[in-house]
Specification:
The chain is mostly helical. The chain has one domain. The longest helix has 24 residues.
């Protein structure tokens, strides 16, 4: 297990490195994205990688591998759906997408194996998930499923215009994230919420300041989208801060 902990921590640090790369649009990071994209899309990708990094570092540092199934399910859904989409693009003559399709397929296989490997590992934690967290997670799940479907269909729900291919990939990410939260609803242990809240907090910290700055420049037709998205960031960030650092029953030192 010690080796697996080290590998998990190193993986978390690699995700963090690429999160920083996408946030600041550094060449080594954006070169791995399948197509050229815009500033805010790269920022969103960075926020997702930061979220993955936070969860991976927590699992690796604590050795709480009983929390891995939720994250593995998340990665599996994202990898499987993007794999299907990349193969579709490749079949339409965009042969440069074939490599991304194969990589996504390998990620799907690896995450599928990780899910079943970790499924029967008991959680070290015995506390139950707080009621407000459970209610909030159900709202997040419904929102992610609806938003993911809308993005895959090309609906303009983001505060900025998306490349049509990017919209589909972001939709796949949202669907995967829905399963990340959904897993905890079937095993409502606190540690099946702690990783998710850590991820949400990292995601929020990356996006909140740029989104507030976007209020002055957003297209009028997308203003409501930005307000709703920013409200979600504020609420989820507040929820994470309260239960991770303030609430005496769940904060880290407890």
């Amino acid at each position: 297990m010690k080796l697996i902990r080290i590998v998990t921590v190193v993986s978390g640090l690699v995700f963090l490195l690429f999160a920083i790369g996408f946030i600041f649009r550094l060449p080594f990071a954006i070169a791995i994205w399948p197509w050229e994209d815009g500033r805010y899309s790269y920022l969103f990708i960075g926020s997702i990688l930061a979220a993955v990094s936070a969860a991976a570092l927590w699992v690796g540092w604590t050795g709480e591998f009983g929390a891995l199934p939720a994250g593995s399910a998340n990665v599996f859904v994202i990898a499987l759906t993007t794999c299907i989409y990349f193969f579709k693009l490749a079949s339409q003559g965009r042969t440069d997408m074939l490599l991304f399709a194969v990589l996504a397929a390998l990620s799907a296989v690896a995450s599928f194996a990780a899910f079943f490997w970790s499924l029967n590992i008991p959680l070290k934690e015995t506390r139950l998930m707080p009621r407000l967290v459970k209610v909030s997670f159900w709202i997040f799940i419904a929102s992610l499923f609806l938003s993911g479907r809308a993005l895959i269909l090309g609906a303009p729900i983001f505060p900025w215009a998306l490349n049509p291919d990017t919209s589909v990939v972001f939709g796949c990410i949202f669907l995967g994230d829905a399963f990340y939260f959904l897993y905890g609803m079937f095993r409502p242990n606190w540690h099946n919420a702690l990783g998710q809240l850590l991820s949400f907090l990292a995601y929020d910290l990356v996006l909140i300041v740029p989104f507030i700055g976007l209020l002055n420049t957003v297209e009028p037709a997308r203003y409501i989208n930005l307000i709703v998205y920013t409200a979600v960031l504020i609420y989820s960030g507040g929820l994470a801060v309260y239960y991770l650092f303030v609430n005496p029953q769940t904060r880290f030192r407890s």
